[in-house]
Structures are given as C-alpha cells and as structure tokens.
Amino acid sequence: MSCLKDKFDRYVNDGGVPEGGLAPAEPVPAGVDLDAFDALRKTYPEQMASSLVLPLLQTMQEAKGHLTESDAVFVADYLGVPAMQAVEVLSWYTMLYSEPVGRQVIKVCRNIACSLLGAERLIAHLEHKLGIKAGETTADGRFTLMLVECLASCGTAPAMQVNDTYHECLTEEKIDRILEELP
Amino acid sequence: MKAANVFFNFEITGESHTLDAYRNRGGYGALQKALCSLQPIDVQNEVTASGLRGRGGAGFPTGMKWSFVDKMSPVVYLCCNADEGEPGTFKDRWIFEHSPHQLIEGVLLAAYALQVRHAFIYIRGEFDLSWRRLKEALAEARSAGLMGEHILGSRFSCDIIAHRGGGAYVCGEESSLISSLEGFKGYPRNKPPFPAVKGLYQSPTVVNNVETLSTVPWIIAHGAAAYKEMGTEKNSGTRLFGISGHVRKPGLFERPVGYPMKKFIYEDAGGIEGGKKLKAVIPGGSSTPLLLPEEIENLTMDAESVQAAGSMLGSGGTIVIAEGTCMVRLLHVLTRFYAHESCGQCTPCREGTSWMDKIVARIAAGRGQSGDLDSLERITRGIMGNTVCALGDAAAMPVAGFLRKFRHEFEFFIEHGCSMYGGRLEI
What we know:
The complex is a heterodimer. Chain A is α+β, with helices and mostly antiparallel strands. Chain A contains eight helices and four strands, in the order αααααβααβββα. Chain A has a four-stranded mixed β-sheet with strand order 2-1-3-4, covered by helices on one side. At the A-B interface, helix 3, helix 5 and helix 6 of A face strand 3, strand 5, strand 10 and helix 13 of B.
C-alpha cells in the first residue's frame, strides 16, 4: 500500500508521469522472469504496451500464485503506464487473485444450466468433503473452493474447473474420483 | 430448404483439429482463392451478398459492419470476440476445440477484406483446451506461411494475436472488450462513436464473433448464393444452436436458421428429462425473456420469429425448464449472476442489479414483503435504456419476463414464505 501511495503522491505532486515513464521502485519480484516479459511484449505491436497489463499480470500470477499491489505497480513501471491502471486491473478481473489461494483451486459453476442439473447438490457435497465453505481455503493450503459463473459447459453440465482443467457431466462419485486423483 | 453443414462436416478424431486435417478437408482453399483472385472489396461484397448476420447475439449484418470502416485509415484493427460467457451458450468453445483453423482462416479473410495488419482474438480466460488448441493452431499457421509476412507469397501480411480475458462477462460487449484489450478494466463506452469509426486505440475496429468469422471461409469457398439458399429469406445460413437444462440429450447442433424450436427440443435433444412437461424455454441465452410452451408451438429459430414471440434469439443457446421447477429460485440464480457481473460504471445497473438480487434473494429465503414485486418492476424500468451497454437491459429483461409470466409463483412465495414447488431447481 505504501508503495502505491508513494506513486500516487509522485503522480500528484510532480504533475503527472515524469518523462520517460516511472522508474521501477521495486526490485524484480521473486518468481518473475523478465525474459518471459520481454518475449510476450514482442508478440504485440510496439505501440500497444498498455495492452500487456493483463497478460503480464496473468504470467506473474502463474509464477506466484497470487498478486499484490506492488506486483501491479511493477508491471505498470515495466510498461510505462500509470500505476493506478494496473492496480485497477488487478482488483477488477475476477481471475486475478489478490489473496493467497490453495494449490488446487476448485471453481464450480453455479449458473443456470448447471443449477438445473444439480449444482447446489454438488457444491454442498464439495463443502462437506473438503470441510470448508465456498470462498474458503483448507487449513493445509491444498484446496480453495470457489463458486463461479457460466463456464460455457451448459451442454455438459454440471461443470467445474480444477485450476484450469475442465471437469464436466459431474456427479458426486465423479467428484470423489477427481479429488482422489489430485496431487 | 437445403441443408449443408458449415461446421459439422467432418468426423472428430484426435487429429481433426490440426492443420493437416483441416487442409485435407479443403481448409485454407478460400484464403488461397481470395489472395490469388479476389480484391479485398470482393471478399466484403461476397459476405454482404451472403446475408450473414453476426452470431454473437445482436445479429447485425456482417458485410454492412465491414463497410462502415474507412479503408483509407492508416490502421484498421480486427477483434474476434471469443469471450463466450452468455449462460446457455457454448458454441465458440466447440470451434476452438475442434476446428481452430476454420476460425483462423476466417480471421485472415476478414483481415484481408478490411486491410488489417494486426488482428486479435480475445478469448475467455477460463478456457483451457480452447486456448491450447488456438495457440497450437496459430503456431502451425505461422510456420506454414499462413500468417505473418507475405501470406502464401502474396503482398498481404497479417499477424493474429491471441489475448486472454480475465473472467468478466461484460467484456463480451464489444466496447468493453476494446477497453479490456487496451489494458484497462472492461468499462463499456458510449456509442457513437461506434468501434468501426473509433475503436481500439481510437482506430477503426471491427469486432466479430467467433462463429461469424468461422463462417466466412465457407462463404468464400462455396459462394454467397449457396449460403443464401440455407436458412430463411432474412436470415441466411446455419447456426450452432446449443440446448441445455432439463432435456435428455443436451448439446450443440448445427441447424439451418429458421429450424422449428419444438422439433429441436423434442427430437434433436430427445425431449424433456423424465418425460416431464415443458414449463418454459429461454430461447437465446439467459438474458432473453423466457417463453411459455404455447408460445413455442409454431416457433421457428430465426431472429424475426423469436422477436415476434416477444423474446430474442440472441446467441442461440436454448435453456429448457421442466414442469416442477421453482421459478423464484431460478430467477435468483440469474439476478445473482448479473449483480456479480455488473461492471460498476453506470449507477442504474450497478445499484439496480444489486437491489434486484437482494429482493429476489429475500423472496427466495421466505422473507418477501408485499410491494417487493412492484419494486422489482420499478427497478427494471429504471435500468432499461439508461446504461452505457446492454448488460443493464440484459439483467432487467429476465426479471421482467419471469414476473410477467410466473407472477403467481412469486406472490405465493411472498404470501406463504415457501416455494410452490419445494424450491426445486433439479428435476
């Protein structure tokens, strides 16, 4: 937070972003591969640096698990865009995590097609099985249970994702099997 | 009505999504033809003549959309909208997973028509296999000289950049998608100016749906006349119709536009689960007003007929609801969704969706109050037409529709504090 406040003060007191963009205030955060940043940046047209805010935050999250405000400021500095823009992006997109999550993030769809085929029953089953409520993480840091909106699996409902992997046409037994096979 | 398949025209195997398989079934022939023998304007004219209309939901004529772009502009951008998120819709996923090169060829043809150097595919962040298949296909296309500098030895160069979303329903709205692609939170923008005039980075931009672009190669290969032979007079071609909910065989079907809805539900999807009676149908994704069994009796699946019946065909995702479902709790599923997905920019939607959700949640918890239904109706009127994008209307329409057609269930819930149907969503 202090980092952000510092940026904000600089922005206000110095009458805007100083020439040449903001200097990185933070050293390179742990787990960040600047070569990967550069490689990704090369795939976009040069004048589109701003477009990379979300892709870079996603890359960073893959390495770190979750993101902090100073990570967002780091990305903003790297691209030369206002710090506030990256911080807003971090807080606005639901797939960017500002809080630590478990190693296995279970995202269960609770939208209309899945609800019509038993999403509530499956959510209750998962809550019971994992011993946590939706939105919580198990004490050992292994599982986070999240409820999400439509995953575009309506034709194969009910559906959930474990990290990125889709699991469809779910039943209680199938969920048990999936959980057992997870590392 | 002639019925050819634009999409379901090959057997799905472990290899059918690859470049070799796509080429073996004639893939990239349309691109070759266009680059060798057609001018960009010819491609646009062919698409206009085919009568192809946008498959994302609004149904705007594709060729006309392209014609709005000033081709003399130094930079023109093309964005493929693959942020498939309308509940009930799962067609774009099929294209990515099984025929990604069809989309890439469509993007390249559109880029050629519009003289685009950089095209973007904005794909939903949640998609996993779709994303991997797209990345693989783009790499294959690049190494085969189908993308990049001097495509197939011609003077046309184009790069396609795949950009992942961050999990926001509103980013499927074209101006929100542009904000998101520029690296901001996905706030929609006022129109005009339309993206075709001022879009991505203030340059003329065309935003087309995945299915729309994937249809273009077929049109160029077989001709506009052949495409126009399918479907209805005002709505040509085929569409990928999805069906989900209480049916025996949910799934995705390619059918000519104007296909009978009853046949779709009772024959293609095998009828209602457990032989139950039909209670309601949501014809085009969760934002479209629902229809009663008597309203779909002679309904055909084209924009005009569905509109005449008081709803919209939208993205072509049909959700079937069987007798015995509690409509109050079902509406709560939808109000919760829209309250969660409102981007927060416009007050009527930001506050209205939360108010509607709180009231419906209260009723569904057995604590409804007299006057709640009037409040809900007042809020829907306050939202509709008063927001920058269509999400406001999309959130208000289901509420208005449920109240208009199942008001007695809501009144019962408020009066008795319990559901007429035991609160069941599952049958």
